Amino acid sequence: MSGQTDDHAALAFRVRGVRHSFGQTEALRGIDLDVGRGEVLAVTGPSGSGKSTLLHVMAGVFPPDEGSIEYEGADITGLDEAERSDLRLRSFGFVFQFGQLLSDLSAIDNVTIPLLLAGWRRKSALVKARDALEELDVADHRDKRPGELSGGQAQRVAVARALVTEPAALFADEPTGSLDTLAAEKTMDSLLDLVRSRGTTMVIVTHDPRIASYADREAIVRDGAVSFGGGVGNAEGVGNVG
Ligand SMILES: Nc1ncnc2c1ncn2[C@@H]1O[C@H](COP(=O)(O)OP(=O)(O)O)[C@@H](O)[C@H]1O
Ligand SMILES: [Mg+2]
């Protein structure tokens, strides 16, 4: 028993008995996982072990076959597609390895989109988007299209887009996987500054130990099940149920 908490108030995510298959492939075979509010959790493990599937079911992209996921004390497993979509838009941000910026739009227009979807007026959305680009140190490139940016700049625009709505939780899947070490570190430094200062809960999937070292704690996924690494920081009180 390592650190199951009774303090549900401090939990952002509570995952219990989650199983999910794609056809004959059992991607998740009974996942139990807690993520504290404001915690940064790294999810590591071999390719094909179920990391992305875990991230998707936690973020309400699709429901698992079995088990439950609570977000902020409410079961999200039974939500229908429209309700999950609404939850994602209202509460979650996403960063992926690449290919998430719209190539025909400028950097600032890309960052403005989530705000417009959330009902912001264009003028205030542009101001907010520009602030977000500044926080990621790419405001100078706001009028460029993704194809005119370096990989690292484009990824920082993508981070600005994910964080511009100030989501309570951020899901990142190999967010620096396409970048060289220096660009990856610069992106992670800006991202973590922002996430820590806002108290954002973050789940970051990575195979890179240097990226995992930014997290408070590490959950290792093998064959669709979670174990815990020698974890850092905040491990007391949030953990697996053994
Ligand atoms: N959409 C899908 N259709 C069929 N199989 C899938 C799908 N997504 C993932 N899988 C399979 O589920 C397993 C876990 O995949 P994934 O969660 O993407 O692993 P990871 O992110 O750790 O590399 C793998 O065997 C993978 O091939
Ligand atoms: Mg993956």
TrEMBL record:
Gene Ontology molecular functions: ATP binding; ATP hydrolysis activity; transmembrane transporter activity
Domain of life: Bacteria
Entry GO terms, CC: plasma membrane
Keyword flag DNA damage: no
Keyword Nucleotide-binding: yes
InterPro entries: AAA+_ATPase, ABC_transporter-like_ATP-bd, ABC_transporter-like_CS, ABC_transpr_LolD-like, MacB-like_ATP-bd, P-loop_NTPase
Record's keyword terms, sorted: ATP-binding, Nucleotide-binding, Transport
PANTHER family: ABC TRANSPORTER RELATED (PTHR24220:SF685), IMPORT ATP-BINDING PROTEIN (PTHR24220)
Protein's UniProt name: ABC transporter ATP-binding protein
